[in-house]
């Protein structure tokens, strides 16, 4: 049985992002550490205690800064950071967590070795408070959490046991039991986190993607549209419909029809430019959302490529199927773009092309979307 549940890259990125939610407990722990360390230095007058307090305070402040930066970056983007950036965030959290846990270890060990019994009580409170916070808030990263608890508690366990008194040895054994229990809790919380986040991500994929082709559905298209209009000056919508697709289902069965749809999706995915979105919004209805880089004629080029790809034969088990397609295109300035208006305009041109059943190519012209959206299309019959 695996102690640490395996994570997919998407789950890993989500779990690292959870570290940004530890601002309040990190701040509270830093303040507590400074208060206890300062009081211990006032009682004991020990330079190592002062150094441990300063190290813990500096580590806590640095970790708070890291958390604030991570929160800021997450707010700026609707998507989680990539794998490499997530690893860098995790490394930063790891370094600061180890710094703070080392400070807790040093302070608690020195306080247990002190002849002032009131410091023993404070050391116990410091250890339990720190490990309780780590086991609950850092559990999404179990290696960090477990390492921090081991660093914080093992020196104190050894130190209290070596003091020789029965009561101190009992305390050291209790600390050891609580350490093992804390690590077990970390693993349990992590497994649940992985399972819950995996389910959430799966549900998001199902909500935004067509289960047959893996392309975006209507919701995914709408979200991609909102992102695209923020990045591009011009955009184009291509509505695509397969002519004769119903005959494939009627004559060869729905399994063959599904294979055709998957082939169409794969072809579209291969030919669309980077940043474009391919969506399946109906039975044999596809939409391509294109961000135009410089000239509106780019949409004409892509439409011709789509038309060419649809004319290619579809190789299915035991048969070759030939279909034709119709494409309707609407282009618009992104600042004035409305998805529903553009879809209606492209769809209107598509069905005009179906009715006309002739080859045609109408170059598009830019017009503000307050005027009728420009549309153009091409059909194969």
Features:
7 strands, 2 domains, five-stranded antiparallel sheet, two-stranded antiparallel ribbon, single chain, 381 residues, elongated
Morphology: elongated
Q: Which stretches are poorly predicted, pLDDT < 50 over at least 5 residues? A: 359-381
Largest sheet: 5 strands, antiparallel
Please give the number of β-strands. Answer: 7
Number of helices, counting only DSSP H or I runs of 4 residues or more: 12
In what order do the strands lie side by side in the largest sheet?
Answer: 2-3-1-6-7
Q: Give the domain tally.
A: 2
**Helix fraction by DSSP (H/I, runs of at least 4):** 55-70%
N-to-C terminal Cα separation, in Å?
A: 60 Å
Mean pLDDT: 85
Structural class: alpha+beta
Radius of gyration: 31 Å
Give the strand content. Answer: 5-15%
Q: Which sequence of SSEs, written as H and E, runs from N to C?
A: HHHHHHHHEHHEEHEEEHE
InterPro entries: DGC-Regulatory_Protein, GGDEF_dom, Nucleotide_cyclase, Rev_trsase/Diguanyl_cyclase
Transmembrane segments: 21-43, 49-70, 91-113, 119-136, 143-164, 170-190
Keywords: Membrane, Transmembrane, Transmembrane helix
Domain GGDEF: 233-365
Q: What does this protein structure show overall?
A:
The chain is of the alpha+beta class. It has two domains: 9-208; 218-379, 2-Layer Sandwich (Alpha-Beta Plaits). The protein is built from twelve helices and seven strands. It has helices spanning 9-18, 23-44, 47-76, 83-113, 117-137, 142-162, 166-208, 218-231, 245-252, 254-271, 297-311, 339-356, and strands at residues 234-243, 277-280, 285-292, 314-316, 319-321, 324-333, 374-379. It has a five-stranded antiparallel beta sheet with strand order 2-3-1-6-7, sandwiched between helices. Strands 4-5 form a two-stranded antiparallel ribbon. The model is unreliable at 359-381 (pLDDT under 50).
């Amino acid at each position: 049985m695996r102690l640490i549940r395996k994570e997919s890259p998407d789950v890993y990125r989500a779990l690292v992002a959870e570290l940004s939610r530890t601002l309040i407990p990190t701040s509270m722990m830093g303040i507590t550490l400074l208060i206890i360390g300062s009081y211990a230095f006032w009682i004991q007058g020990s330079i190592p205690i002062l150094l441990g307090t300063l190290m813990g305070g500096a580590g806590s402040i640095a970790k708070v800064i890291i958390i604030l930066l991570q929160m800021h970056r997450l707010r700026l983007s609707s998507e989680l950071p990539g794998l490499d950036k997530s690893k860098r965030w995790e490394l930063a959290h790891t370094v600061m967590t180890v710094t703070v846990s080392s400070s807790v270890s040093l302070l608690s060990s020195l306080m247990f070795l002190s002849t002032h019994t009131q410091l023993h009580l404070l050391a116990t409170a410091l250890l339990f408070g720190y490990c309780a916070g780590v086991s609950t808030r850092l559990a999404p990263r179990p290696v960090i959490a477990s390492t921090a608890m081991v660093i914080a508690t093992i020196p104190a366990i050894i130190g209290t046991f070596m003091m020789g008194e029965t009561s101190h040895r009992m305390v050291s054994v209790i600390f050891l039991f609580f350490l093992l229990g804390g690590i077990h809790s970390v693993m349990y919380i992590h497994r649940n986190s992985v399972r819950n986040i995996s389910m959430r991500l799966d549900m998001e994929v199902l909500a935004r993607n067509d289960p047959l082709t893996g392309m975006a559905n209507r919701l995914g298209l709408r979200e991609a549209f909102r992102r695209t209009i923020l990045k591009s000056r011009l955009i184009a919508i291509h509505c695509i419909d397969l002519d004769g697709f119903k005959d494939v289902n009627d004559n060869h069965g729905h399994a063959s029809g599904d294979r055709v749809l998957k082939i169409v999706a794969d072809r579209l995915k291969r030919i669309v430019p980077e940043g474009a979105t391919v969506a399946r919004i109906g039975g044999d209805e596809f939409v391509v959302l294109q961000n135009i880089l410089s000239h509106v004629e780019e949409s004409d080029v892509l439409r011709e490529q789509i038309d060419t790809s649809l004319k290619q034969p579809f190789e299915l088990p035991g048969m070759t199927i030939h279909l034709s397609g119709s494409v309707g295109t609407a282009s618009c300035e992104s600042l004035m773009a409305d998805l529903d208006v553009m879809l209606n305009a492209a769809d209107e041109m598509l069905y005009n092309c179906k009715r006309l059943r002739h080859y045609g190519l109408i170059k598009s012209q830019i017009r503000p979307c307050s005027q009728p959206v420009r549309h153009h299309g091409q059909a194969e019959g």
